[in-house]
């Protein structure tokens, strides 16, 4: 697959966010102000967990609907800024990265494939090590007070 840190030509860069990078969350303005289209609600397949010791979520491989937003950036946008936040470095061993950046299908609320986008996923063993709490509704928010 020819997806890299940045894109050449006219290909827009799409990133699916499900945590602190979502609109209204703490990292959205600082890290996502270069988006060129409004955020679009959708979901990816996976399992989402709250990491209470850190105050943010993690996504693992799975079949649940994990809700978030697809963000679109201009062609040529570099993912390095987002990679830094997610403690991901291309070429570094998966054990050293906190998250892995991967390509995934994004579905709209009517269950149709909307697009494909980058997303940051965490290894289930790391989630367990970090004390992840499974969120069966597929949604994370910093406003969730019931999470201990």
TrEMBL record:
UniProt cross-references to CDD domains, sorted A to Z: GGCT_like
Superkingdom of origin organism: Bacteria
Pfam families: GGACT
Domain Gamma-glutamylcyclotransferase AIG2-like stretches: 15-141
Family matches, as InterPro entries: AIG2-like_dom (IPR009288), GGCT-like (IPR013024), GGCT-like_sf (IPR036568)
Stored Gene3D superfamilies: Gamma-glutamyl cyclotransferase-like (3.10.490.10)
Name the UniProt record assigns to this protein: Gamma-glutamylcyclotransferase
